[in-house]
Specification:
single chain, mainly alpha, two-stranded antiparallel sheet
Length: about 200
């Protein structure tokens, strides 16, 4: 689920920022601010209408239903847009002279130049997707689709002769194990992030 949300957010944000910056259509700026204003509407506010739509489409208890409503990201679109605006127009002009179309310019020029930003956004979006609790709690009834964060609540206590006792050892072991994936993502991509910053300084 975390990887699906992360790749979905990055893909949509890269393409939307590219369209807003380089396809200078009439409503590009108002459209961007409309996207940016969605930051004022968190998931908790729109969770019930979102659930209604997902339920009507028959996507409950599925990875598609868990991932699809969370793949749009105004934050990543904003950062990629700001980054693309710093790229000189001469690069686009030279690409056109070489016969590159819009898609080729995006793949061969913008994506390689965006590696540092992609690494940073990947870290934030993966942690965001990995730490989801409320949406999977509402969306799923099958244990197959329960997230790691949901598992923490289950393992918190056990009943002994009608008394709820803390499962301290299991709780700490579970928490340590649940930290491994996001920590690995941060450690691995931090190297790419720092490398990109160093190359930019040069």
């Amino acid at each position: 689920m975390a990887l699906g949300i992360t790749f979905g957010k990055l893909t949509i944000s890269l393409l939307s920022a590219f369209a807003i910056v380089y396809f200078r259509f009439k409503w590009a700026t108002p459209l961007f601010w409309l996207i940016f204003m969605t930051l004022l509407v968190p998931l908790e506010v729109r969770i019930f209408p979102t659930y209604k739509i997902v339920s009507d489409l028959g996507l409950t208890n599925s990875y598609t239903g868990l991932i699809l409503p969370l793949v749009a990201s105004a934050t990543a679109t904003f950062f990629f847009r700001q980054f693309y605006r710093t790229i000189p127009d001469e690069l686009l002009e030279s690409a056109k002279l070489d016969g590159a179309n819009s898609w080729r310019f995006f793949i061969d020029f913008l994506v390689p130049l965006s590696k540092t930003m992609i690494a940073a956004m990947f870290i934030f979006m993966f942690v965001y997707g990995y730490s989801q609790y409320l949406w999977p709690l509402i969306m799923t009834t099958s244990e197959k689709y329960w997230t790691v964060i949901m598992g923490m609540k289950i393992i918190f206590t056990e009943s002994y002769e009608g008394v709820a006792l803390p499962r301290t050892a299991e709780r700490f072991a579970y928490i340590i194990l649940s930290m491994i994936p996001p920590v690995l993502v941060v450690v691995i991509l931090q190297k790419w992030f720092i490398k990109g910053l160093i190359q930019t300084e040069k």
